[in-house]
Specification:
Blueprint lengths: L3 H15 L2 H47 L1 H11 L8 E7 L13 E3 L4 H8 L8 E11 L2 E8 L1 H52 L16 H46 L8 H29 L9 E2 L1 H18 L3 E6 L5 E2 L2 H17 L6 E9 L3 E8 L21 H4 L7 H11 L3 E6 L4 E8 L3
Length: 461
């Protein structure tokens, strides 16, 4: 079954293309070509008919003036039996005389005298008794009128047939061009869609990955190369920043540990009024050591490889139960209820201490940011045929949508309402690092109210 994101990308590709300037421009050019061809064809027919009629009028006028009326009537009478007698009408009108015998008995409608009116009347309705004809009348003398008419229905029908076929060809060409260009545009845009999707996955999960140029079309390989260079630059920059922070943490952890040990040894020797000060210094040392240890743990997990398929099997149900039992007294003191429900699901490949630390950080945050009387729901269930889902939902203040990607950054402190609580800003960074090590995905969602943290573990690696 096609992925929904691919279907959306396909629909957006077609919509962007069909409404693009190219399709509109191509349709405009086709329509203009049709109009020009139509006008040229009918104008050419009008010119030919007008020239033919005018030539016949000129010839018969010369016959009359050079040879007289008898010769003129003889030629007009013989024209009734010529090959073009069905298409040409000759009419001599003598004043005060009946001349109906000199012309065929036919009902006709004379057209107007311009190409535009000629086209308009030609496109009008046609009946058996309505013959389209172009005619011209000339006075040979004050008592004699000569009219020559030219029927053009057959020529008009032929042009209409050709014009209709041209319109059909233009429409088919436009439709074919749209289909071909839609497919080509779709392939190009789907390539960019695939690249953007891979970039998001790399930036969100593993900066060590790179785009694969073999999976894209040739004209997108340059984009892939530039993207890989950018990722390399970002990875080197982050590695430099992390190495500096890791070196600082590593170098300071040893003297800080010595300082804490000396404070512990000094505590029994100081006056009683200074013991509270020693306790505060020890607490600060513990906080700093916790930050340094978490920082080094995150770096170790991010720099190392992910868990292997032959790793030890772990029951998430047991790990979660142990963490819930450990934090129930803390939640009770904060006036928060922990509601834990778990299905009997398969075990996964994992490390118990890392998973326990990940769930402990999530539940600890949920308790901190949930007011007294609140509820924290912890659920373990199967998610599809190949995944397990752990959901930890609280009724606290939540995290705004705009900050949800940033909270996984090291030392990130959110809005003031969250910054008031004690912490070093590494909890969710450690959660993501542990999830990455276990090939799991962490998602933050609204709980209305509160925050819902969902972790998806693969059943098989």
């Amino acid at each position: 079954m096609m992925n929904s994101s691919l279907i959306i990308a396909w629909v957006l590709t077609l919509r962007v293309h069909l409404l693009s300037r190219f399709s509109l421009a191509l349709a405009a050019v086709g329509g203009l070509l049709f109009i020009v061809l139509t006008f040229f064809s009918y104008s050419n027919l009008y010119t030919q008919l007008n020239s033919d009629i005018h030539g016949r009028i000129q010839f018969l006028s010369e016959v009359y003036h050079n040879h007289g009326l008898e010769r003129l009537t003889d030629i007009v009478a013989r024209q009734g039996y010529s090959d073009d007698s069905a298409d040409v009408l000759y009419f001599l009108e003598f004043k005060f005389a009946d001349t109906s015998a000199l012309a065929p008995a036919v009902v006709y409608r004379e057209t107007a005298t311009g190409p535009i009116q000629f086209l308009w009347q030609g496109l009008g309705s046609n009946t058996d008794n309505d013959h389209k004809m172009l005619a011209e009348t000339k006075a040979l003398n004050p008592g004699l009128m000569l009219t020559v008419g030219r029927f053009y229905q057959k020529e008009f029908d032929t042009i209409n047939y050709l014009i209709g076929n041209v319109a059909l060809v233009i429409a088919v060409f436009w439709l074919g061009a749209m289909v071909i260009t839609s497919v080509a545009t779709h392939r190009a845009l789907m390539g960019t869609h695939r690249i953007s999707k891979e970039l998001r996955a790399i930036m969100g999960q593993n900066l060590a990955r790179r785009l694969q140029p073999e999976t894209v079309t040739p004209y997108l390989k340059d984009l892939v190369d530039v993207g890989n260079e950018m990722l390399e630059h970002v990875a080197l920059s982050l590695q430099g920043v992390r190495s500096v922070s890791d070196n600082i943490a590593h170098d300071l952890r040893t003297p800080l540990t010595r300082l804490r040990n000396k404070l512990t040894q000094l505590k029994p020797q100081v006056p009683r009024e200074y013991e509270s000060t020693i306790d505060e210094l020890l607490s600060d040392c513990d906080d700093l050591l916790g930050s340094f240890n978490a920082l080094l743990r995150i770096s170790m997990l991010e720099a190392g490889s992910q868990i292997r398929g032959d790793a030890k099997k772990v029951s998430l149900r047991v790990v979660l139960q142990d963490v819930v039992d450990m934090y129930e007294p803390v939640a009770h003191d904060a006036g928060v209820l922990l509601d834990f429900q778990a299905e009997y699901v398969d075990q996964i490949n994992g490390e118990t201490d890392l998973l326990g630390q990940m769930f402990a950080n999530i539940i600890d945050n949920a308790i901190k940011f949930t007011a007294s009387g609140g509820l924290i729901q912890i659920r373990l269930e199967r998610f599809g045929p190949e995944q397990l889902s752990v959901s930890i939902a609280d009724s606290g203040i939540g995290i705004p949508q705009a900050e949800r990607k940033q909270v996984f950054r090291r030392f990130y402190r959110g809005e003031p309402s969250r910054s008031e609580h004690k912490g070093h800003g590494l909890g969710l960074s450690l959660v993501q690092a542990i999830a990455f090590y276990h090939r799991a995905n962490v998602e933050l969602k609204d709980n209305n109210p509160g925050l819902r943290v969902e972790v998806y573990f693969p059943l098989a690696i």
